[in-house]
Design goal:
Blueprint: E1 13-17, E2 20-23, H1 25-42, E3 46-50, H2 54-67, E4 71-73, H3 80-89, E5 94-98, E6 117-122, E7 128-133, H4 135-149, E8 155-158, H5 165-177, E9 181-183, H6 187-192, E10 201-205, H7 207-215, E11 226-229, H8 236-244, E12 249-255, E13 260-264, E14 279-280, E15 284-288, E16 293-298, E17 304-305, E18 308-309, E19 315-324, E20 327-333, E21 338-340, E22 343-345, H9 347-357, E23 362-370, E24 374-382, H10 387-395, E25 406-409, H11 423-432
Parallel strand pairs: 1-9, 3-4, 3-5, 4-6, 8-9, 8-10, 10-11, 11-12, 24-25
Antiparallel strand pairs: 1-2, 6-7, 12-13, 13-14, 15-16, 16-19, 17-18, 19-20, 21-22, 23-24
Length: 433
């Protein structure tokens, strides 16, 4: 637990305001004192945290950690389909902070162990899952990265959503290594407010954000200590443009279940020509099956997906990799999962929703390479509904980022007698559309 908030350095937290970075540590900690009092008085079985404002999120996060209150992180932009899944696991006597609709908890009345941190991740068939982390698993990830980078203090610049593991980890990296955290909500804040030039900051980006940076360059990005790139496939043209602009990228591999990176390049590897995901961090071990599937053992590995615990390690992923010396290269995925803009999207979830709606007779959703998003979500459908009607309906059911960017009406979707898509016939059909 984080029992002693007074141990937090006064210069830990900075936020942008009117084109300047302002110290925010004292402001946040003063408010956390009242938040702690609320939690100790109510003693909820779980704190459901869905705060869009980064500073408000940090208040809830610090208050929960310092009191041992179990915590569930949620996306404030979720729609009815996602909130129904939240309600299905919520215990009684939970407490909600932030943008949360009325929910009828359906989960167990049993209290969660103190200090559990449930972080959302996409799951099989698109259903949400919550990786069970603790202070110990998050600290293992921080210490492993420290040792790998051979750095004591890690200063961070963060613009990723804090309910995401990629946004949360810069918070704890800076907090637990005595670093400073420059926390903004959007990339545009960095265009308006550059950080101090004498502070060596680590930044985490998904490929979509890197594309935006390359399109409208920020010269001071070259002076960053390093830019971790994760959250989905990064295409070669994007990487070569980043190298041409001398951006200090550090390609990486990790996931929600491992509290972020378990494999990463060191500073300078990328600009020296390395295009792997780097070497395995000291707190983790990666093995490959005979067919290349990645298996993981790590001190930072989640305990399970709430409410179920994992069996004994190793953890089996749906990613395929290849070793070249001690460097890991990611070859692809074994499932239909699409990663668009750093977000996991599962076609089966969207197909089921649309088929249930009656707006389509048949549908097939897939991802295609896209220079901005990494992958673009495309839907082939059979029916009389317009793309506008389908898009509008689907955005009321689930988050907008999941919705197809392109809708293609087809006379039929070729399938085998078992219902599987016949891809050769599908390709011929698309060429005629």
């Amino acid at each position: 637990m984080l029992q002693n908030l007074t141990s937090i350095a006064p210069r830990w937290l900075w936020s942008p305001h009117n084109g300047q970075w302002q110290a925010a540590t004292a402001q946040v900690l003063e408010q956390v004192a009242g938040d702690q009092e609320q939690l100790q008085k109510r003693q909820p079985t779980l704190l459901l945290l869905a705060e869009a404002d980064p500073l408000s999120f940090l208040r809830g996060f610090l208050a929960a950690l310092s009191t041992g209150t179990p915590l569930l992180l949620a996306n404030p932009q979720w729609q009815s389909h996602e909130w129904q899944q939240v309600a299905a696991i919520l215990p009684r006597n939970f407490m909600a902070w932030g943008t949360v609709p009325p929910l009828d908890p359906q989960g167990t009345a049993e209290p969660l162990p103190p200090g559990w941190i449930l972080i959302p991740s996409g799951g099989t068939q698109g259903r949400l899952r919550w990786a069970i982390h603790t202070v110990a698993t998050l600290q293992a990830a921080v210490m492993g990265l420290q040792r790998h980078l051979q750095e004591g203090t890690i200063h961070c610049l963060s613009i990723l959503p804090l309910y995401h593991v990629s946004g949360l980890m810069p918070v704890v990296r800076s907090l637990w290594t005595g670093g400073e955290l420059y926390l903004a909500s959007h990339l545009r804040h960095l265009r308006q407010t550059a950080p101090p030039p004498n502070l060596e900051l680590w930044l985490s980006l998904v490929p979509r954000q890197l594309q935006q940076v390359l399109t409208e360059p920020l010269p001071w990005f070259r002076e960053l200590r390093g830019i971790f790139i994760g959250g989905g496939p990064t295409w070669s043209q994007l990487l070569e443009e980043a190298a041409a602009q001398r951006l200090p990228l550090c390609l990486s591999y990790g996931m929600t279940e491992t509290a972020g990176m378990i494999c990463a390049q060191r500073r300078g590897d990328f600009l020296a020509g390395d295009r792997s995901c780097g070497q395995v961090l000291p707190h983790a071990r990666i093995d490959l099956s005979a067919t290349g599937e990645i298996q993981i053992q790590a001190a930072s590995l989640a305990l399970g997906y709430y409410p179920q615990l994992f069996p004994d390690q190793p953890f089996q992923t749906d990613d395929r990799g290849q070793w070249r010396g001690d460097r890991l290269y990611i070859l692809g995925r074994t499932s239909r999962k699409i990663i668009s803009g750093g977000e996991n999207i599962y076609p089966e979830e969207l197909e089921a929703l649309l088929l249930d709606s009656g707006l389509v007779q048949d549908i097939y959703i897939y991802g295609a390479p896209d220079p901005l998003w990494g992958e673009q979500v495309i839907a082939l459908y059979v029916g009389n509904s317009s793309p506008e009607e389908l898009s509008t309906w689907l955005k009321r059911q689930c988050s907008a980022y999941k919705c197809p960017k392109k809708w293609i009406a087809v006379p039929h979707i070729p399938r085998t007698p078992q219902g599987k898509v016949r891809f050769c016939a599908l390709q011929s059909l698309l060429e005629r559309c």
